[in-house]
Amino acid sequence: xxxxxxxxxxxxxxxxxxxxxxxxxxxxxxxxxxxxxxxxxxxxxxxxxxxxxxxxxxxxxxxxxxxxxxxxxxxxxxxxxxxxxxxx
Amino acid sequence: xxxxxxxxxxxxxxxxxxxxxxxxxxxxxxxxxxxxxxxxxxxxxxxxxxxxxxxxxxxxxxxxxxxxxxxxxxxxxxxxxxxxxxxxxxxxxxxxxxxxxxxxxxxxxxxxxxxxxxxxxxxxxxxxxxxxxxxxxxxxxxxxxxxxxxxxxxxxxxxxxxxxxxxxxxxxxxxxxxxxxxxxxxxxxxxxxxxxxxxxxxxxxxxxxxxxxxxxxxxxxxxxxxxxxxxxxxxxxxxxxxxxxxxxxxxxxxxxxxxxxxxxxxxxxxxxxxxxxxxxxxxxxxxxxxxxxxxxxxxxxxxxxxxxxxxxxxxxxxxxxxxxxxxxxxxxxxxxxxxxxxxxxxxxxxxxxxxxxxxxxxxxxxxxxxxxxxxxxxxxxxxxxxxxxxxxxxxxxxxxxxxxxxxxxxxxxxxxxxxxxxxxxxxxxxxxxxxxxxxxxxxxxxxxxxxxxxxxxxxxxxxxxxxxxxxxxxxxxxxxxxxxxxxxxxxxxxxxxxxxxxxxxxxxxxxxxxxxxxxxxxxxxxxxxxxxxxxxxxxxxxxxxxxxxxxxxxxxxxxxxxxxxxxxxxxxxxxxxxxxxxxxxxxxxxxxxxxxxxxxxxxxxxxxxxxxxxxxxxxxxxxxxxxxxxxxxxxxxxxxxxxxxxxxxxxxxxxxxxxxxxxxxxxxxxxxxxxxxxxxxxxxxxxxxxxxxxxxxxxxxxxxxxxxxxxxxxxxxxxxxxxxxxxxxxxxxxxxxxxxxxxxxxxxxxxxxxxxxxxxxxxxxxxxxxxxxxxxxxxxxxxxxxxxxxxxxxxxxxxxxxxxxxxxxxxxxxxxxxxxxxxxxxxxxxxxxxxxxxxxxxxxxxxxxxxxxxxxxxxxxxxxxxxxxxxxxxxxxxxxxxxxxxxxxxxxxxxxxxxxxxxxxxxxxxxxxxxxxxxxxxxxxxxxxxxxxxxxxxxxxxxxxxxxxxxxxxxxxxxxxxxxxxxxxxxxxxxxxxxxxxxxxxxxxxxxxx
Lengths: 88, 994
What we know:
The complex is a heterodimer of chains A (88) and B (994).
Chain A: E1 3-6, E2 10-13, E3 18-22, H1 36-44, E4 52-58, E5 66-72, E6 78-82, H2 84-87
Antiparallel strand pairs in A: 1-2, 3-4, 4-5, 5-6
Chain B: E1 14-23, E2 26-32, H1 36-42, E3 49-50, E4 57-58, E5 71-74, E6 81-85, E7 96-99, H2 113-116, H3 125-129, H4 137-147, E8 163-174, H5 178-189, E9 194-197, E10 213-214, E11 217-218, H6 219-232, E12 236-239, E13 242-247, E14 253-257, E15 274-285, E16 289-291, E17 304-306, H7 307-315, E18 325-329, H8 333-343, E19 348-353, H9 361-368, E20 373-375, E21 377-383, E22 390-395, E23 400-405, E24 408-412, E25 415-417, H10 420-424, E26 429-432, E27 437-440, E28 446-448, H11 458-475, E29 514-516, E30 521-522, H12 523-531, H13 537-544, H14 556-568, H15 572-575, H16 589-593, H17 610-615, E31 619-623, E32 626-631, H18 639-652, E33 655-658, E34 663-668, H19 672-679, E35 692-698, E36 704-714, E37 717-722, H20 727-741, E38 748-751, E39 756-762, H21 766-773, E40 789-794, E41 797-802, E42 811-817, H22 818-832, E43 838-839, H23 842-851, E44 899-906, E45 918-920, E46 933-941, E47 946-954, E48 963-967, E49 974-980
Parallel strand pairs in B: 1-7, 8-9, 8-15, 9-12, 15-28, 17-24, 18-19, 18-24, 19-20, 33-43
Antiparallel strand pairs in B: 1-2, 3-4, 5-6, 5-7, 10-11, 13-14, 14-15, 16-25, 21-22, 22-23, 26-27, 29-30, 31-32, 33-39, 34-37, 34-38, 35-36, 36-37, 39-42, 40-41, 41-42, 44-47, 44-49, 45-46, 45-48, 46-47, 48-49
Helix pairs in contact in B: 5-6, 5-11, 7-8, 8-9, 12-13, 12-14, 18-23, 21-22
């Protein structure tokens, strides 16, 4: 079980959340200007990082906010959580 | 039956409380305080099972959860429990105990012929040999499963109730031996909330079997006092009979608490276990250590016991597990067993000590008592067939030292920490040379204490436990400023252990020498694995099944690490130990499932009209978690007849459908139109308030994700309908874009799926019914045209009415607050009676939409379908960007041979195609036969008087009218069809505009 520290609700069990994949992948401002390869890179390519990983979580059964969790993908240790307001 | 091996005095059994249970039907006399294993030993039962692969006779090896042999079946019928350990199961009156792996009986086992064939059944034998012919696999498998018995499952649903308990505490203490008791006491004194769990019925662990003293009291008595103090201490929860079986991320610990039955059909057996999900702030891991067996030929014979277990049976249960003993050791602890045996009047014929010069206190005492001690000596073979009868001794250089008669052979290869929970969590471990085993390191709120750290001296263990309990409480934020004094015990100077893995020289070739008794893995199997290149301990495990039994290799793994190291000539620290996984010991599936069974396995969602549907005799289908009315058969009607009647009612008169399950999301804010423009493929900003539009939502990969109608309620407010099962994913998707990407948009989303019920009136008379039910909304065609929405009242209830249609008929979808929906539903039915109103269910809804060629997301689409594939390319705006648009300009999206939506008409109009059927160009025997596509929807259309089907067919749209065939899987037929336009009924759409 992961105890996920929702920035709005506090630490909750992972059943309440939905995983949203790697964070910090902005949508290209003008998709039409991209080559197929560039677009595919945005769509599919992920770092699959070993260790420190910034990822998106959604508090489905709680406050319904998306936020960023930092997790060690080797130990599953949660290193912190931040809202989108914090990081921008 | 008498108890010939019961000692006259001593032990913690209650001699004033005799009881009887049965083993394979034989009555066994015992006392309260016995385990099944101690009672069997007291009664001279040495054979408790047959081994898994070779069906060799096996006896009790240990006095705890580490036993590889003592698996038994408890009880019978629905409540029977397989794979329980006799060594931890308390003896209770009337308990029914059976062996698990012998056929036809324990004493006469036909399968033991496997033992004679052992040289021909090495590791991997089944996989290598029983491969051909493949068609005989079911036969082989049946035979193998019968041979590899592990008890049997109950024959009926479990009548017991199981619970889950969710608990939080400051400090969880795993194990209530000396370290655990000291830790729990120390933590409790700080005021911390403590949970302390131990797998045995009594707290005390090793204290209950030692003659040592703690705080001047005999150790068992001190344990009783400590346990009693903990039981009455505020904030302390004591859980005996409770095994901590899993340690997960965030230090969640699962405990299985075994409860005992008072059911007459299940006397004395376990019943209604509880699983505790504990989230402690800190954990004291005081799980102890398991004594390591030693290798010699026939080291699996009944009568070969771990030395520490012999002491436990003598001191705690007043049972002598034999009448003449030999002890084989590489450390001091087994001398204590020899002394215990001598005290109990059991002659010790010899001690074979691997070490040349053991100089600790205990060896000196043994010598002083006149016990023959052979130093630099090892046992190389056990003799005897059903039970050990003699031990053959050798010096370390292989010189014979003679054969010593005995019926009890105590072995001790040192103590390996029970690091299973720690290892499950991948927490750090290091090789501890003092015990020649891996030991856990403190980490992330886990405080190891006692024997699990490799510390075996009682005084030091008690100090460690006290320190760990104090430190854990402090780390959990509880401290009263002073460190409690540790309980005192005498220090016992000991001589060092000498690692001993393989018998000397050629004696290591004597057969068979068992590394894993449960899985029948021998030294030869390990050699074979290494010879074939499987050298990593994880590979050895998978190749030989080492440690894969229900005992989880508690004895085998620490031994295997050293053996493999020696065979490879490597340092054992580099060999490692296999990854441990939950559960530490078997947990019943009932306990794991808890209350999450039957109707509570998954929540059921129903609409406010559910009771009406039930009283109307509806049959139901599950749509996601929703129960939806499927069809409403009249008495004597088949499903086909009922659906045909419902379909024709809608086409000719009027039907009423409970469509409350549709997802509904209110989208508000000044930028709501801009937001819809980005998430839908078509244009929304210019949609006027009061109007509705059909929208398609794509993933960024350009594939259809959801569809539905959205209405503009007013300038800054829209109501979006989503498909029933997609309601939550669509909301999460929209929120993700708003919250993480388009944070500048002023838009708010509210799920209103359950606030508004949705009743669909469909059919040419639906306007008349709505008028008759009473509404203040003008209903004339020009006042309330198709694809618009009006707010007003229906049957006196505030309502949002949408003139949209999923049937192609004149139709009104009436949204009313859920708490008034049943009233409106019945008012509409009353008003519609004279118009022949007919309630219809989801099956009719599907037929009607298929007649119109309307897609259902997830039925026509499967995540690889673009809007153009289903003929909806006209909904793709050229003027704006939208999610997924860029993907549609890939060359692949324009491939002419993409699967496209077409209709299929069978040559035989009565024949309904199988959904999922493969569409091919022509029948043929070639394999694989090229597939053109597949049938997505298929029904009998009552209004057309024939079958219809929708299909996704490669290049289908350009070749409408072509001859195709649909293959049936079950009877190998080819059904001839012709493709056609996917709209079968009213292709101009005139009926919905009236």
